[in-house]
């Protein structure tokens, strides 16, 4: 496997910090970090100024009890993690449906990579060795699913998925070979748990550039498949679904970051 475009961060070990969504919001506001990461879906609680003041006071009290803030400000290590999360040079976002909603962002600069994971009403913060390792570590382990890679025009697949009947028959009716239609229908049917990964890289003007391409991971009882999309020279969009393992998935995520970096350079 080739090396990642972005090398592993060299920061020393850190303790995992588990915050409530309210504690995270209060700390973020006190540090003046701007909007919270979109992928974490953390709305600031409190509909009125009075409600907000009460929530902030309770959040600060809880943080003081845990030794995460005092009169001088938030814990320095925690503040550093949050600051990197707010202004990263690059980041990977994960939106996963694993029987429950799990959202994560791995963000980093030249010195530090930070992973934030939102589950229910908590946010977990910790450093990670690299951005791909961080987000992929959130996913459950899985073996490659059965079958082989199969490619179909994206429009054809979208039309077949929108059809109310049998997916295999809908694909065959749209000129997909029977063998490929069988494989595609089986792999999509098996993928009951789904995760989506995308990348953002900050350009020279410090504007985060989001890559439009998304990796979709499909997990089922028989293993893991990866859904990717690409555009041919003639402009046709294609979708490929096939078995994947940890090495191949890591390679794809590295490619995603590389592509995002190139797009950010071109945009600048």
Q: If helices are DSSP runs of H or I spanning 4 or more residues, what is the number of helices?
A: 8
Overall pLDDT = 90
End-to-end separation: 30 Å
| Strand-pairing-aware structural class | alpha+beta
Assembly type? single chain
Give start-end ranges of low-pLDDT stretches: 1-13
Helix content: 25-40%
**Overall domain count:** 2
What is the alpha-carbon Rg in Å?
A: 21 Å
Task: Tell me the β content.
Answer: 25-35%
Q: H/E series, N to C? A: EHHEEHEEEEHEHHHEEEEEH
What's the total number of strands?
13
Basic shape: elongated
Largest sheet: 11 strands, antiparallel
Keywords: Chaperone, Cytoplasm
Protein name: ESX secretion-associated protein EspG
Subcellular location: Cytoplasm
Main location: cytoplasm
